[in-house]
Write a structure and sequence with these properties.
5-stranded mixed β-sheet; alpha+beta; about 525 residues; about 60% helix; 5-stranded antiparallel β-sheet
């Protein structure tokens, strides 16, 4: 169910109540002149509300566009009949000329709405959005003309009732007050719909007019109120799809609607008359246990696979004494199934996202590694070095760096080929990794390598660099007379620099000093 579903359901119930009220007032049309215009008003509101319900019930697009005409026919007729009803109540003579004058605007409204798909004077734009689709419109100039006219008519009716209230006392004054409240309800509701359309997605004005119709009927047909309300409520309870059980203080079913009877029979319980039986003996045990001996809400799974949303409420008299309970059970099997399917889909989506994140991390890691040696490459090294320098500065610890270069590597490639050159690089990488942590060894580029030495000062780093140089000197490849050596430059932060560029430049200068001194040696930055 969409977020507007409960409101549409409430509006459908209101349409039923309005229709029932209209039938009752029509039967009293001979008793008072106000009954006939009130009946027309209730019929118009019923048409209006039915159109709004259908517009928000997922009907196909052609129906969405076709329903606009009966919707505004109901709106125009409602405003017209409201004015005529107030005329009748206030004793004003309703002439044919006045009725004709008041009919002009509703007739023009219907014509304009019918031609609007071509003219776009009433609705400037019309879009069909959502799933299920609904119409989203922007108001055109004639919409505001119609709105202003309708508000003027409603306000003039309210002004007439207000004058009537000031001129009367007692029962008539109370009736006029009731009518003013009845006029104010749809007026306020329509203001919200027109000017807060982004917030109020469903036209709730017919719902407010239902209140108006019932209050008008109460004000004019007081003696019929006690008959009207039970009939309307009975109509609603009989037609809703929720199962409704009324249980007395002795836990006997004293009333049940058709949906409740159908539920009992569908679940394989004893058929026949449910009223008069014990509630626990009439329904499935799971439902009886959920209801228990108190009130509250619960979701119950029945044996047939049906899931019910069960709500139980106490019925009390004016003194608070318990008379019984009302149990309302709604079949939510389809909704729960959809929710569980959505949960499973979300779980699969989370798994897929996790897989994608894992693959992305693997790709990022592969992109940051040298495919030949398996060491980290230069791509992420500089950023990592900056973070390490920041951390070292914060703790006051030194951080040293060794920049190593394979001696005469170009000659190795030229003499023995690139395959042997690659073997030399792989062997050097293994030798360095055997004497340092994997995350601290980097192939910086070509035949150059970097080894980070955290927490070591310049002297200790120089000694460790000598160990690394000696390890590389022990490297052997399957080529006669090929001896592998490396030259190394050592730099320490903060002595030789506090940024990656400064530290690498100091190590590079020391490396060139080592090469200039005959290679296969280590030099410490000055």
């Amino acid at each position: 169910m969409t977020s507007t579903g409960p409101l549409v359901l409430l509006l459908a119930v209101a349409v039923a109540v309005t229709a029932a009220t209209g039938v009752l007032t029509f039967r009293r049309r001979r008793d008072t002149p106000a009954a006939l215009p009130l009946t027309v008003a209730l019929a118009s509101v019923t048409l209006w509300g039915l159109a709004v319900v259908l517009l928000n019930s997922g009907v196909p697009r052609p129906w969405l566009d076709a329903l606009v005409l009966p919707q505004f026919l109901g709106i125009g007729a409602t405003v017209l009949s409201l004015r005529l009803f107030v005329d009748a109540v206030s004793g004003r003579t309703t002439t044919a000329r006045r009725v004709l004058a008041l009919t002009v605007e509703p007739v023009l409204l219907v014509v304009v709405v019918a031609l609007d798909p071509q003219l776009h004077w009433f609705h400037a734009t019309v879009e069909h959005v959502g799933d299920p689709e609904r119409r989203v419109v922007t108001a055109g100039p004639l919409f505001w003309v119609h709105t202003a006219y309708s508000y003027m008519v409603v306000l003039s009716a309210a002004s007439t009732v207000h004058r009537l209230r000031r001129q009367t006392r007692g029962l008539l004054r109370r009736q006029a007050t009731t009518m003013l409240v009845a006029i104010a309800a749809p007026f306020a509701a329509n203001l919200g719909v027109v000017f807060l359309g982004d917030v109020v997605e469903v036209d709730v004005t017919p719902l407010a007019f239902t209140v108006t119709g019932v209050l008008f009927a109460y004000a004019v047909l007081q003696q019929d109120l006690l008959r009207l309300v039970p009939v309307a409520r009975s109509l609603v309870v009989e037609t809703v799809t929720d199962a409704v059980f009324v249980v007395d203080a002795r836990e006997r079913v004293v009333d049940v609607n058709p949906a409740g009877t159908a539920l009992v029979r569908r679940e394989g319980r004893p058929g026949g008359e449910v009223i008069g039986r014990a509630f626990a003996g009439s329904v499935e045990p799971a439902l009886a246990r959920a209801v228990g001996d108190g009130d509250g809400d619960a979701v119950v799974a029945l044996r047939g696979g049906t899931h019910l949303d069960v709500r139980t409420r106490w019925i009390r008299d004016d003194r608070g004494r318990v008379l019984g309970r009302v149990v309302v059970a709604r079949d939510v099997t389809e909704q729960l199934g959809a929710a569980r399917a959505l949960e499973r889909a979300n779980a699969r989506l989370r798994e897929q996202v996790a897989t994608i994140e894992h693959l992305r991390a693997e790709l990022a890691e592969e992109a940051a590694r040298d495919p030949l040696t398996g060491l980290r490459n230069r791509r992420r090294f500089v950023d990592d070095l900056a973070d390490r320098l920041t951390a070292a500065a914060a703790t006051g610890q030194p951080l040293s760096l060794v920049l190593l270069d394979v001696d005469h590597f170009k000659a190795v490639n030229d003499t023995h080929g690139h395959a042997i050159g690659d073997e030399v690089l792989v062997a050097v990488a293994r030798a360095l990794s055997a004497h340092a942590r994997a995350e601290d060894v980097v192939r910086y580029g070509g035949e150059e390598f970097v080894v980070l030495l955290p927490h070591l000062d310049a002297a200790a780093a120089h000694r460790r660099a000598e160990e690394l140089r000696a390890a590389c000197a022990r490297v052997r490849v399957e080529v006669e007379d090929l001896r592998v050596t490396v030259s190394a430059g050592v730099a320490t932060a903060p002595d030789h620099g506090s940024t990656p560029d400064e530290l690498l430049l100091a190590a590079d200068r020391a490396l060139y000093e080592a090469k200039g001194g005959g290679r296969d040696r280590v030099a410490l930055a000055d």
